Amino acid sequence: MASGTLADDIRLKLGILSPAERKVARVLLASYPSSGFETIATLAERAAVSAPTVLRFVNRLGYSGFPDFQAALRAELEDRNASPLSLYEATDDAGSADSAAGLMARSSKLFTAAVAQTLAETPPHDLERAIALLSDRKRRITLAGGRFTHLLAQYLGLHLMQLRDDVRFLPERAVERTAVLAALTRRDVLVIFDYRRYEHDKLALAQLAQEHGGKVIVFTDTWLSPAASHAEVVFPSQVTTPSPYDSLVPTLAIVETVVAGLITAMGNEAREHMKHVEDTAHRIGLV
């Protein structure tokens, strides 16, 4: 999982915490991030530990005290909820103009680092599980994106349609969308793209799919969409970019990695399906 959030730091340190400190960690993770704003006494009571244990726990994370820990959490939430406008206004040199060469050099550095970090922090078992779910012909796949990320949902979905049957996009119209969601079953895989300023419906979609026994795959940023708590697989990506808009370049790299894995996993079945699709397209004059 991508680094950079307090929740990730807590998970990484679970192995070095004392049993009592681990109780505090699990209480925090169970209702993160809201639990981090409770009082020391409340956290101690919920975890069935002493107040000094809570203080030792935040010290173990590297904070001088509980106010320091909560300040870091507030800063994280500000980043998590940032909009392009707020990022633009927070950038000192937002109005300055790079030369073309300078912009290219800065973009190259930022995108290269973001893609490399995203791929390096993607657990192989998560990639393997996603490929297994998406290549399973017994499963039906539904894809849903957001304001900008619907483009990536379509990109992945169109590749999937060339490789297998039973792939669809979540409809926009209310009646059709409701019908699709009401018909979710254990054989469904819901693929969600959701990035900061998260869209409320994505959490509901993930909950519905999970309640019906289906599997959920979430593509998100390092702060994690709320839908991630209901997902079987989560792909967090870096979003660093030279503009106030979050970058989707690292996510595209993950999507194309998944597609490459699907082609390998599905083998001749994928090739035969692609051939059938091409033949059909020729017959109706689309190519």
Contiguous runs where pLDDT drops below 50 for at least 5 residues: none
The helix count comes to: 12
What is the residue-mean pLDDT, rounded to a whole number?
Answer: 89
Task: Give the CATH class of the largest domain.
Answer: Alpha Beta
Radius of gyration: 22 Å
Question: CATH-wise, what's the superfamily of the largest domain?
Answer: Glucose-6-phosphate isomerase like protein, domain 1
Give the second-level CATH assignment, the architecture of the largest domain: 3-Layer(aba) Sandwich
Helix content: 55-70%
Note the run of SSEs as H and E: HHHHHHHHEHEHEHEEH
Number of strands: 5
Alpha carbon gap, first and last residue:
41 Å
Structural class: alpha/beta
Total domain count: 2
CATH topology of the largest domain: Rossmann fold
Percentage beta strand: 5-15%
- Report the principal-axis shape: globular
Q: Sheet bearing the most strands, described? A: 5 strands, parallel
* Main sheet strand line-up: 2-1-3-4-5
How would you describe the overall organization of this protein?
Residues 4-80 form the HTH rpiR-type domain. This protein is of the alpha/beta class. The protein has two domains: 6-80, Orthogonal Bundle (Arc Repressor Mutant, subunit A); 118-283, Glucose-6-phosphate isomerase like protein, domain 1 (Rossmann fold, 3-Layer(aba) Sandwich), CATH 3.40.50. 57% of the residues lie in helices and 9% in strands. It is built from twelve helices and five strands. The protein has helices at residues 6-13, 19-30, 40-47, 51-60, 66-80, 84-90, 100-120, 124-135, 150-163, 174-182, 200-211, 249-283; strands spanning 140-144, 167-169, 188-193, 215-221, 233-237. The chain has a five-stranded parallel sheet with strand order 2-1-3-4-5, with helices on both faces. Helix 2 crosses helix 3 and helix 7 (100-120) crosses helix 12. The radius of gyration is 22 Å and the shape is globular. 32% of the residues are buried.
